[in-house]
Amino acid sequence: MSNAVGDFPVKGKIALVTGGGSGINFAFSRLAVENGARIVIVDLKLTAEAEEFVSKHSSSAVFAKTDVTNWQQLKSAITTSLTQFGDVPDVYIAGAGIFDPAGFNYWDDAEEERYKEIDINVGHVIKLSRMAMRALVSRGKKGVVCSVASEAGLSGVYTVPLYCATKHAVVGFTKSMTPADQLEGVKIVTVCPGLVDSPLFDEERRASLVTLLPNAMKPIDVAAVMLMLVEEGRFLGGTVYELPSKEEGRVVPPWGAEPSKTAIGMMKLQQAEEHDNAPLFQKMRERVSKERISPWP
User: Fold this and answer.
1) What pLDDT was estimated at residue 267?
2) Which of 49, 102, 147, 217 falls between 20 and 30 A from 294, CA-CA?
3) d(CA 271, CA 280)
């Protein structure tokens, strides 16, 4: 007997959104409230715009300051929904993420114990989905978990291999959780956006993409697709949705998927931009060159 989620309009439901203080995930939070949902925004801090939004919509939006790598804090964010809105969330957006910042990336190699980027981009996504499933089944509810992956999870870029690895992990996890829709009534999906002009990029990274960002998508473009994935039953659990541009999107086949022409073009442009403009690429090459003549360790 199927327990599939099916159509799942957010009106009257509760959504928990990690990384909801800015960018794509704030855009989703705002869109969800506009469509009749109540939201728990989970982040370390809010932008001024997000802070104003929460203040204006205090009956339907609450901020839970959370370090998503701290699983007790992540669990407490779900409890916030219970105390503020009287129930656990129906929708879980695993959107918090970082993009190879200085000091926390493969090439800088400054971390001694573990990769923070993996803890945020992969660890919290997987753990939140498990918490979501436990919370939902304990209340006899169906629900949806939607993560934010990337086209980097479908390809690779030499300058940002750790970021690419984390997004491949999210894609693989989502595919693995396909049966949860039918068996547990918990639909787990992900979106793989192309280039988005968002706070994800630090100033150094933005400088390397300066000619590409004017044509990048806006956060709301991705948020609208995320809402579609959550609400429409035609997108089953395990769906990996590629969004290389605002005008082009598709469900990625589970096997032997050919890349879209837009994705190929954007990836080539991005690689050329980083290599030819050089600041990041050259810094990476210089670091490895020094390592050739440095003693280990």
Assistant:
1) 63
2) 102
3) 11
